[in-house]
Structure to design on (698 residues):
């Protein structure tokens, strides 16, 4: 009989905050760069063509003596009947004997670790004193991107939100943004709720009809859509802009004009995945990736092995394809906190 | 909050028997042949080189409105400290909305569905009235192969067991074989325990020092070892012999001399997997697989779409690589029985 700890979405919510999630995600990137972690091939499959898909991401963290996987499914039509579109589970196994250690609801965990990824890109690559953020996409994930970026990049004072399909979606999204952001704790352990509330209150939130004008002002752009064609064009952007590209995670996805890659400083979470399923894939096909702009794994930047932005006019790009090590590093933290706080349920299988 | 049913190994044992497992496995093969099921790419990784590995198999059963995966790990050194070497979990999801339905301990399930696979090969391909079985390999899995074959092929009256490394392992294995077989129920619902006990008692079990002599007599051979080189040679076998090859499930594994494939009638569970990770892989490399002996999926044989053995001197081979659909079909049966009998535990994630 094998004891396994189960953590519900509520358990996860009671443990994770922006600070500890970002720390876990940065740690995952660093362990990968130090080759103290491995990714296994990822699986991405249509379940019902055009209606539902799923992916399985798996890997191993040597340093934590664990390995595991996350299966996440997307059923877009769920939302029409009041169910979440994204559901899934993380399974964590012990690298000492192969026994399962924990099973964790992947919904909030995925949203938090993905928000952290976008923010980590802005934090390490945007110009210092960046104060304007443009978020492209106003779905479920956008609020997590904004939350993590406001926390990690304290200079941001203005957030534009652009929905490429409908202006009123951006308006609606921002109408409740402050209360939505307050629901995502910045720091559950040391800092006060009031601090986070003040931080959010100090930010201006503006819906965007035409991204062209806003791009003259934006220091950092986060793209977080399911798009399969470019939404932002080279001619629209000004020197010095940073892009965190979150949406592209399978073949055929694209958010940026490939010309933006020409001469840019490009980082990614996983070099191989970036070339095939990430934002970089289209630039590769267009022949615009060369020795000088080929993606470097961001763990090396966090470690200080390489320089990111060289001058304030550089275009920087972080292509976040999403890797199992983010999930595993966060899960490891969840399991150790849950053991400490006696959260979740332990079952014998 | 998503309700998920958890089934422990004891729950699985209380539901599965040879008859219902074989029915599920045959159904999985048939659904694959009818294209009412799909396999996703499988992942096979070394965790600790030479010490531990794991694989993730996943797929979808349209007909049952479910999809899912099985992660199984192998830590050989566990046995030295009294822990099982093979551990793992099956996760089943609802194809209507992506919600997790069940999580099942994979240990007994894997043993049972793998035993069923070997027996299905013998049942559909060996000569009628086969009465001598040779099992090559005397590990954990061998007893499940014998159990399923004795149940599915009632003409078998003599079982030889051969351990390619040590004769005394085969002797030891057979010393308790009757009681081990009795622990695996043939039919928990309709037939009597006495019937199964009599069946087992009527069989002669003989350890083998030299397989050469036994092969003159064997009608069917099941190979179930982790071997990476041939254990049975073409010169040793007689016309008409059937082989169910269970061991080969990853690149580099091999149990049969490739020359045995020359002129043989070859079936498999998955044509693509067979060519790359199954017993067929070495014959492919040796250039011995042609149009007339290329593997046909066994579902077509069970359905009656194709003929298996054409004459009593044919050499027949079933290359069982192990597919997720076996696990999913068995899991679906487990879940529906567990709901009916209120077995396992339901947790909200």
């Amino acid at each position: 009989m094998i004891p396994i700890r189960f953590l519900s979405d509520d358990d996860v919510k009671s443990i994770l905050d922006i600070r500890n999630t970002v720390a876990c995600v940065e740690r995952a990137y660093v362990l990968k760069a130090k080759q103290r972690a491995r990714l296994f091939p990822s699986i991405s499959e249509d379940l019902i063509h055009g209606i539902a898909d799923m992916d399985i991401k798996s890997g191993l963290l040597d340093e934590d003596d664990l390995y595991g996987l996350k299966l996440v499914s997307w059923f877009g039509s769920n939302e029409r009947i009041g169910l979440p579109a994204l559901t899934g589970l993380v399974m964590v196994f012990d690298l000492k004997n192969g026994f399962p250690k924990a099973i964790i609801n992947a919904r909030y965990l995925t949203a938090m670790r993905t928000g952290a990824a976008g923010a980590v890109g802005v934090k390490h690559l945007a110009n210092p004193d960046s104060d304007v953020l443009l978020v492209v996409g106003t779905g479920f994930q956008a609020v997590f991107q904004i939350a993590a970026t406001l926390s990690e990049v304290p200079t941001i004072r203005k957030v534009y939100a652009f929905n490429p399909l409908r202006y009123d979606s951006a308006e609606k999204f921002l109408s409740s943004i402050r209360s939505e952001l307050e629901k995502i704790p910045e720091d559950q352990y040391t800092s006060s709720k009031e601090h986070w509330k003040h931080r959010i209150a100090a930010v201006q939130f503006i819906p965007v009809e035409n991204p062209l004008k806003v791009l003259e002002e934006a220091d950092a752009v986060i793209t977080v859509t399911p798009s399969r064609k470019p939404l932002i064009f080279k001619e629209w952007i000004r020197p010095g802009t940073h892009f965190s590209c979150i949406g592209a995670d399978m073949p055929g996805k694209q958010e940026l004009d490939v010309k933006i890659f020409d001469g840019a400083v490009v980082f990614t979470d996983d070099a191989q995945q970036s070339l095939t399923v990430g934002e970089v894939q289209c630039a590769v096909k267009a022949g615009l990736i060369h020795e000088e702009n080929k993606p470097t794994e961001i763990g090396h930047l966090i470690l200080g092995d390489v320089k990111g932005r060289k001058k304030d006019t550089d275009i920087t790009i972080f292509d976040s394809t999403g890797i199992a090590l983010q999930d595993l590093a966060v899960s490891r933290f969840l399991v150790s906190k849950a053991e400490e706080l006696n959260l979740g349920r332990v079952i014998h299988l």
